[in-house]
Design goal:
Shape: globular
Strand content: 25-35%
Distance between the termini: 35 Å
C-alpha cells in the first residue's frame, strides 16, 4: 500500500510466492480488504485481520503423479533438504527444479551465485517421479507441465479472491514479490485477464518492508438494533462513540492527531437473510447516514450478486456498525529517479535457450542483469531479468519497463511479439 500510494494504483492484487506458499491480498480503492474472522486450523479468531488467502504452492512445492494426473503440492521440500537441484539430499521434483530444467533459472546465478544449482539432479528427479509415469520419459514435457499446473493453481486462487468476490481483475494491477513471484506472475496474471504486473524493486524483501511501513490501526465495532437504521441522530451518536474509543487508542501510541483518519462501515443484509454484506460509508454526514448505508448496501450487493439479485421490495437490516481509525506512521520516502531512455543494451548479459510452455518450443531468450537496468529501460519479451534473489520472466508477447521508482512493470497486452 505504501508503494502504491506513491506509484498511483488504487486497485491491486498483491501476490507473494515463496518456497512453500502462495498468498493473495487485495487493495480496493487504496484500502486493504479485511476479514471479519480468521480460521487457523480448527480455531476461529474473531478479530479483524488483513484478508490474506493462501495455498501450498511455491518454489519448493513437490510435483507428483496421482494415477494419471500431475499434481503439485501441498507438500513442500522446504529449505532443507530443498529442491533436488540444491544438491542437499532432496530427491523429489519441485517447481524450482522444473524452472531450472526449462531454462528460466540460471544455475550459476541463483542467490547471486552463492548456490550453484544442479541441473542433472533436477532432471533425474523429474524423470523418476513424473516424466516416466506420465510423459513417456520426456523430461522437458514434464517440466513444462509442472510450470503450467502451478501457474493454473495460483491463477485459480487469484480468480477466487477477485471474480468470486465481485471484483473484475482486469481493473487491477498485480504486484508480484517473494523469491518466486516474479518468476511465475506473468503466467497466473494472464490466466485471469490482468494486463499489468508490477515487480517491486525489493521484491525478495517486500513482506519485511510491508511490516516496517504498516500504519497503526484500531477498530471498534458493536451490534445494534435493526431499527437504528430509521434514526439518523442515534445512528450518528453510536458511530461517534466508537470513533472516539478507537481514536483514543491510536493517540496513546504517539500518533499525531493530524495523521489520523477514520472510516465507518456496517454489516447489513436483507430481511430473513443469514449472510450479511459489509459496506463502507463514503462520508459521515449525520443527516444522511441511513440513506448512505442503504445506497452502499445496494451498490455492494449488486457488485457481488448482480442487479437481478437486488430485492427492492424487501427490507434491509442493519446488524452491526464499526469504525476503523488509522494512524499514519512516518515512512521512508520511495525514491524517484530520472528516466534514462528505453535502450537496455548496457544490461544485456547474454542469451539462453528457454523452453516456453505456452509456445511449446525452445526460444533463444535475451538475459538481462537487473542491477544494470535503469529507469526508462524497456525489455521486450521473450526476456529474463536476473535480480539478486529473484528472476523476472517477460513472456514473448509482453514488454517490461523500469519505472521511475525502479520497479519492473510488465505489460501483458500490446507487447512485443516474436
Amino acid at each position: 500500500r505504501a508503494l502504491m500510494e506513491s506509484v498511483g494504483h488504487k486497485n491491486v492484487v498483491a501476490t507473494d510466492v515463496g518456497g512453500t506458499t502462495f498468498k493473495v491480498g487485495l487493495l480496493i480503492d487504496g484500502q486493504w480488504s479485511v476479514a471479519r474472522e480468521t480460521v487457523i486450523n480448527q480455531y476461529t479468531l474473531s478479530i479483524p485481520m488483513v484478508d490474506l488467502v493462501s495455498i501450498g504452492a511455491g518454489g519448493g512445492s513437490i510435483a507428483w503423479a496421482d494415477d494419471s494426473r500431475l499434481r503439485i503440492g501441498p507438500k513442500s521440500a522446504g529449505a532443507d533438504p530443498g529442491p533436488a537441484c540444491y544438491g542437499w539430499g532432496g530427491e523429489e521434483p519441485t517447481v524450482t527444479d522444473a524452472d531450472l530444467v526449462l531454462g528460466f533459472l540460471n544455475p550459476d546465478r541463483f542467490l547471486s551465485g552463492r548456490l550453484r544449482l544442479r541441473k542433472d539432479l533436477a532432471e533425474k528427479a523429474i524423470r523418476e517421479h513424473v516424466a516416466d509415469k506420465l510423459f513417456g520419459g520426456d523430461v522437458i514435457a514434464a517440466a513444462a507441465g509442472i510450470r503450467q499446473v502451478i501457474d493454473a493453481q495460483m491463477g485459480d486462487l487469484v480468480r477466487k479472491v477477485t471474480v468470486e468476490r465481485g471484483h473484475d481483475p482486469r481493473s487491477f494491477v498485480l504486484m508480484a514479490y517473494g523469491g518466486a513471484g516474479p518468476l511465475h506472475a506473468s503466467g497466473y496474471a494472464r490466466a485471469i485477464g490482468v494486463e499489468t504486473v508490477l515487480v517491486p524493486q525489493a521484491a525478495t524483501a517486500y513482506s519485511a518492508y510491508g511490516a516496517a511501513a504498516s500504519d497503526i490501526q484500531h477498530s471498534a465495532q458493536r451490534s445494534v438494533r435493526s431499527d437504528l437504521l430509521a434514526d439518523d441522530a442515534e445512528l450518528a451518536e453510536a458511530y461517534k462513540a466508537l470513533d472516539e474509543q478507537a481514536r483514543e487508542l491510536v493517540l496513546k501510541q504517539q500518533v499525531s492527531p493530524d495523521a489520523i483518519s477514520t472510516s465507518w462501515w456496517a454489516d447489513m443484509s436483507y430481511e430473513r437473510q443469514l449472510h450479511y454484506v459489509r459496506v463502507t460509508l463514503r462520508n459521515s454526514a449525520p443527516d444522511f447516514l441511513a440513506r448512505q448505508l442503504r445506497d452502499a448496501f445496494e451498490e455492494r450487493y449488486t457488485a457481488l450478486y448482480g442487479s437481478a439479485a437486488v430485492l427492492s421490495s424487501v427490507g434491509v437490516k442493519l446488524l452491526s456498525i464499526g469504525v476503523d481509525v488509522v494512524g499514519a506512521i512516518v515512512k521512508q520516502d520511495v525514491p524517484q529517479y530520472q528516466l534514462q531512455g528505453a535502450d537496455p543494451a548496457v544490461a544485456v548479459s547474454g542469451t539462453r535457450n528457454v523452453f516456453w510452455p505456452e509456445l511449446g518450443r525452445w526460444i533463444e531468450t535475451t538475459i538481462y542483469d537487473g542491477t544494470l537496468l535503469r529507469p526508462g529501460n524497456r525489455t521486450p519479451g521473450p526476456a529474463i531479468i536476473e535480480q539478486p534473489g529473484t528472476t523476472v520472466v517477460v513472456p514473448h508477447d509482453a514488454m517490461a519497463e523500469v519505472d521511475r521508482f525502479g520497479n519492473n512493470v510488465i505489460s501483458l497486452v500490446g507487447g512485443h511479439t516474436q
